[in-house]
Model the fold of this input.
Amino acid sequence: MDAKELDSVRCSVARTAAVVGDAWTVLVLRDLFRGHRRFDDIAANLDIARNVLTRRLEALIEGGIVVRVPYREPGRRERHEYQLTDAGRDLRPVLQAMLAWGDEHRAGPDGPPVRVEHHGCGGQVRVEMRCTEGHLLTRADTLVTLPTPSRTTLP
Done:
């Protein structure tokens, strides 16, 4: 593949990175997956400037990853919480893969700081790559990138 194949019009990785490729955005997504949905909760948990959080949430909304849902506590003004869309929830394996990579390559001397378990059975969650034939892929496996029919319709 040449450099033209990597631009944001042609490359799905580049298109995804354009929406979620910023460190703060990834941390906002992590907090949404952990159940933090209200602006003040996210801001406090991340210790992020409110204007930065506002920009990241707006970008996630524009990207179709998050929706803003109104709520009102008794006697209070209407506020909003942020919920993942189906497209947002589909990013879970991406964040789980980032967690696994960080555990493997960036954990401190005491080891990984958290463990993700399946609520239903307590088993540790891990991300695997498999081909459509069911083969488990390893680091050593060679992958081939081929153009699809849609590639011919792009500029």
